[in-house]
Amino acid sequence: MRNFEWLEPRTLEEALAALDARSMPLAGGVDLLGELKDHIAAPARVVNLKSLPGLRGVRAERDGLHLGALTSLAELEEHAEIQRHYRALAEAAGSVGTPQIRNQGTLGGNLCQRPRCWYYRSEFHQCLKKGGGICYALAGENKYHAILGGGPAFYAHPSDLAPALIALDARVRIARQEGRRTQYRSLALSEFFRTPAQRLVGGETLLQPHELLVEVMVPPAGESRYLKFRERPSHDWAMAACAAHLRIAGGRVHEARIVLGGVATVPWRSPAAEKAITGLPLEEALSEARLKQAAQAAVEGAQPLRQNWYKITLAQTLVRRAVLAAAGRPIPEV
Amino acid sequence: MAKTNVRATGGIILPPERRTATGELQQVAWENRIVDTAAVEVPVPAGEPPIWDVETRPQVIGKALPRLDGPIKVSGRADYTYDQLPPGTLYGKIVRSPYPHARIVRLDLERAQAMPGVHAIIRLDEADLQHSSAAAAAAEPGTAVAAHKQNGGASGKRNPLFVGDEIAAVAAETEEQAEDAARAIEVEYEPLPFVADLETARQPTAPRVHAGRNNVRKLPAPRGSNGDRGDIHAGLAAADVRIEGEYRTQVALHNALETHGVVARWETSNQLTVWAATQGIFGVRGDLATFFHLPPHRVRVITNYLGGGFGAKFGAGMPGIVAAWLAREAKAPVKLMYDRKEENLASGNRPSSHQRVRLGAKKDGSLTAIEIISYGTPGTGHGAGVGGMARRAYNCANVRQQEHDVATNLGPAAAFRAPGYPQGAFALEQALDELAERLQMDPLELRLKNYREHPFKALRRQYEIGAERIGWSRRQHWQRGEGAVRRGLGMASACWPTFGGPPATARVTVQPDGTVTLTVGSQDIGGGTRMIAAQVAAEEFGLTPYQVRVELGDTRWELYGPASGGSVTITSIAPVIRAAAWQAQQKLLAALAPGLNVPPEQLKLAGGKLHGAGEPIPFARACARLRQGTISAQADRAANYERNLTDMFGAQFAEVEVDTETGRIRVVKIVAVHDCGRAMNRLLAESQVNGGLIMGLSYALYEERVVDRPTGHVMNPTLDFYKLAGTREIPEIETVILDAIDPRSNNVDAKGLGEPPIVPTAAAIANAAAHALGVRLRELPMTPDRVLNALAALNS
Q: How much is the pTM?
């Protein structure tokens, strides 16, 4: 890796003031260290966030969960309140990497991690994402790439937490330093991500170099599940994943959220799939015909590449099973 | 050499437990375990210890004893090559080609030479560095760089032929400095036409990988009872049923946990010591001696512990030559360990295969023809044949196997655990199942119909045991399942030739303090060679293996041992260890007898004591009577008593679940039944089988080297992208070792076991998946996308 300046800020203000286009923030480092060693990233300065106060931990309040961006994935996975009332989040956190990675990796890092596309990760391939001229995946090896939201680049969004948290209507809080004042803004997590058509270089979110994601807020939730299909269950990113979140009352589905992971360039929420089961009596919503309708709607507009047609089938399977699972019905293990 | 004919009984010793009718495992008395016996005349050379046969019950050999190096390994104290760091060691780093084929227009070392910490830089773009000693060789230290300065960095002589091909190397004081300097070497390439896939490389218009040579090379076809035989056309014409199928297997990467690497130190200008991650210390010594024009004894190679080799770690290779060469230039020790990417680009691989299989059979299932035509790519190397299963495993009069290497601009292949056999088994064993379906025969019955008889062959018993333990009889009324998840049962056979034999040498010494030291010129590849060596010696002295001192993994004793490949290690060294230990024991008893006033024949060592002269004397106290010092004996490996020995066999049975909506194949259980002649250590033998079949399962379902054809790059050279099976992917495993005692083999009835267990696993899983799905998966690995595609094709 290239040499860089190492900064240990003691406060959020100091950290924000140190961030610019030539510096990169370091939380768990799971993704960033790989990028540095692979010569994909070469920042002039690395700003260590790990010792910043107040950005770690889970608070359960009346208005829902407040999650510090530095909270480890292991803590999210094991937290009793999250396991009980935000199951999709616990499942998503527990599905990341390996136990070592979950101890080290953070909430903020998982949301902001860079694509796992092997062309992006290869120093030789100067692809669109690195300011180059082409997306090598189009004519190349694209089994793991996106079928939705692609163009001009076709990587699959790698985050597990993002689909689960979007399904749970999470909001994110973003901080920036303006002079001596720290400014905050908050927005729905579903607005946070950017397709390659919206942003190609520098990240897959709307975060600017001088900004930090500091907190995630999750309102009280209904019934939720996150199903992740891994080619190698011991350690893998999603070939496809689906988060489903249902609010069921009086035997009726009042509200549904269906968000796909691993198949699109961003976490892919499908309002059409949600609509297919919303407002229906539970039994009808869970009928084979309705689930099929929801599943088809979820992958509508998919444009598979040469090697990833299977993702259409796989994603649909996961939509059907995630909805069934959220409703407490038995499903085959994925 | 004089030989004496000895009459001995061979046979099969079944495992110590058997399933009852209710499925429980029940202990079986020794007498009831011995089956299929036959007496043979064995010509035993003079000087060999008393012959063993199927009735012999050794005290130490065969027991399930934990390996003596277990504690030192799990506590991190075992010193691997990776752990060696002599004082003043520099770090080596290789500059590699980013192009699959190129001409080096300019190579400029100047900037790199000025980098901090840099002590030496060498060019590797010379002609055929691996195979000639012309390059650095006789040059005095320091001259390689000087010569390069003189010619002003003129273009090199050797064009890189694959991404990862070696261009230059540096030695610097820290790993980081070495990497920085390597990146500072300026290389200007002129990219040349290349070919990075098998199909394109086969076309007549494809760019040639090796100048002046066709990309496609037909491999020699042996003839005879284990080669091509009969008339394939007549065989096919005589068949009542013919089936034909195409199968493809991927390129797989070895990925030993310890990467390739060497630490080299010049003691004087003509005395070299290297610590090498190798499975053959004498091969490394020979290569380095040749390269540097030294007598072999001037090169010492040490491998105390090895973190896996799997066939890719024979000879000095690039890491050995480069580390020693850099060390010579820098006048300091150099450590050069590959990183994972280098490991997966340039240190070997299992070639791919594209096989067309034709089988012919009579209505009763008897085979009339086996034909395999195969093409595979070994990259710039060689060895893409598909193994000996089709020629060796079954009884068939007409066999033809035509194999072809297809060169591509990718890293060279290396031997990989049972080279060719897993590929061959994947095609042949599936074709047999397909034939069984057509004949409406049970797949196991079809294999029994074509059983090939050999002396003391255990396969029929292995089929029986495996079928019993997986519950094969359930297959007659099988319920695939109605929902998304379908279940299937499948099996496949394995065979592997017996290769072990001379040369190998061992020495045993006994000191007056009771220390028994065994020295043998082998290395422990990781399977437990050290432990088995100790067991064999302990057997002759009535000691426990933990009381024996074992010296191995060092060439300085000048006791040759074979490289650990081809499943030869134990077959080669266990008999010579027994011979040396037996001779030393005879000498010991002869030396002690006069002082005890008994004839030596009356003395016996057992249970750590000397018996036969009144009250038993503890071993160390008996040895204390050796006033004159050391007892020693050295022996050379006698030839196997019989030249043509029966292969090792095995059978594996798999039960799988396939999710038809996700494409996931989940292996529920594998039963593996194997033999290795007489098992030397039941625990280690089971570990060997478990490891082999896990590697086979990983090959079947997960592993695949992915190449980007337009750029010739391997896209998954790291372990996040190259998927090895992990703990969650490991099914229930039931491993059964039985003993196939062939007294004609050697003085401990040993055969090998490293390779057979990886041979049938992918085929057994594929057959189980086909049973579950009703559609056959003809390409490895059997990943979810391929399963879904196969189902989609079936439904359309």
A: 0.96
